[in-house]
Amino acid sequence: MAAADYDNDGRPDLAVFAVGEPVGLLRNTTETRHHWISLEIIGDGKASNRNAIGAAVKIEAGGRSRQFWIAGGGSFLSASDRRLLVGLGNVDRADRVTVRFPSGRVQVYSGLKAGRWWRLVEGVDAAQDGRPKQ
């Protein structure tokens, strides 16, 4: 099994399979009024690894703070989406996102709107639109 937001709607979906069998996709269609934000953290590939494994991410929104770490790995024959998908409740933006990359470099991003994917790249000061190209 692997988790990923394969339709990029802010709700985690599941892919399940057994060896030698077709893959089943379980699409999450849960109704919610709550907001979310997703972050793809990318290291520079020199001082930090490209996947930013080991990066610490702090998200401050609506007077609350949450801490996450970028981890690698997965399970036998699968790996889940490594983008962070974070619920924000009724808050429509992340006031501040602080990323400490494996190199030790710290970057801060402000005012990231909810309901969107953001790409945060080491050495690039502005957050990039992380939506997949159609």
Word description of this protein:
- This protein is 0% helix and 45% strand.
- The chain is built from no helices and eleven strands.
- The chain has a four-stranded mixed β-sheet, with no helix packed on it. The protein has a four-stranded antiparallel β-sheet with strand order 6-5-8-9, with no helix packed on it.
- Strand 1 (2-4) and strand 2 (13-16) form a beta hairpin.
- The radius of gyration is 16 Å and the shape is globular.
- The protein starts with a strand and ends in a 5-residue tail after the last strand.
Protein traits:
134 residues, mainly beta, four-stranded mixed beta sheet, four-stranded antiparallel beta sheet, 11 strands, 45% strand
Question: Which helices and strands occur, and which strands form pairs?
Answer:
Elements: E1 2-4, E2 13-16, E3 24-26, E4 35-42, E5 56-61, E6 64-69, E7 84-89, E8 93-100, E9 106-113, E10 116-121, E11 128-129
Parallel strand pairs: 4-10
Antiparallel strand pairs: 1-2, 2-3, 4-7, 5-6, 5-8, 8-9, 10-11
Portion in beta strands: 35-45%
Percent range of helical residues: under 10%
Radius of gyration computed on alpha carbons: 16 Å
Based on CA inertia axes, which overall geometry fits? globular
Mean pLDDT: 92
What is the string of helix and strand elements?
EEEEEEEEEEE
Sheet of most strands: 4 strands, mixed
**First and last CA, distance:** 26 Å
Number of helices, counting only DSSP H or I runs of 4 residues or more: 0
Structural class: mainly beta
* Lateral strand order in the biggest sheet: 7-4-10-11
